[in-house]
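Need residues for this backbone.
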């Protein structure tokens, strides 16, 4: 990890969603079981259900890469249906009040917003999933943009963050996330990178090139200058 953790003048904070703002395992366990039960019922995937831990370990990837990783012998039809089911079941769970943000996320976002920073999400997830979390958890109005690979059809998070920065004329800021794709997206676009060491889905070595590691979301306020 780069030990330069000093604050730099910034316009914006760009956040990953799963494992950064949203504690994904609080919703995914039930969704995971439902997806594979439905795929079996529909005759699309009859092999044993992959372990939930394997799915959680893939968070941060594009969805097509997640299904290819955990269902390498599946058909295109099965993977497409899994996409549809995941979105449907995740939205249903959120509408039922399931799932939660990490501790201190909402209060810290509100404080950053009050200090005049632009806030964004850049996620490799589906559009309605990303926007659904922000809506159901009452934080939509805090963001200047909610960007997802599902909406913009980007091939990588590097491309997604580049588009976000062009659209909003962002020159300086921080990329905040828990996976190597977040580190790469920040570094490739000239941003400082904050690694979320409180997340459990990735491996710590994925964040070794981050400029700062945090174990508490409130530590971001130290960078809000």
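Answer:
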């Amino acid at each position: 990890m780069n030990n330069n953790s000093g604050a730099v003048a910034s316009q914006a904070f760009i956040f990953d969603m799963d494992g950064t703002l949203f504690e994904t395992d609080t919703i995914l366990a039930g969704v995971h079981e439902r997806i594979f039960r439905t795929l079996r019922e529909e005759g699309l995937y009859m092999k044993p259900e992959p372990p939930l831990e394997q799915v959680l370990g893939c968070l941060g990837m594009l969805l097509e890469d997640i299904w290819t990783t955990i269902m390498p012998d599946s058909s295109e039809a099965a993977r497409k249906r899994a996409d549809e089911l995941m979105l449907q079941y995740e939205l249903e769970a959120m509408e039922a009040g399931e799932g939660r943000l990490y501790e201190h996320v909402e209060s810290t976002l509100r404080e950053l917003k009050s200090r005049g920073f632009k806030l964004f999400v850049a996620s490799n997830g589906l559009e309605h999933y990303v926007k659904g979390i922000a809506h159901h958890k009452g934080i939509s109005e805090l963001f200047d943009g909610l960007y997802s690979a599902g909406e913009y059809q980007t091939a990588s998070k590097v491309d997604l963050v580049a588009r976000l920065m062009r659209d909003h004329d962002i020159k300086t800021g921080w990329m905040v996330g828990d996976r190597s794709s977040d580190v790469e997206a920040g570094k490739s676009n000239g941003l400082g990178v904050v690694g979320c060491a409180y997340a459990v889905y990735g491996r710590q070595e994925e964040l070794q090139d981050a400029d700062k590691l945090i174990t508490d979301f409130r530590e971001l306020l130290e960078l809000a200058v």
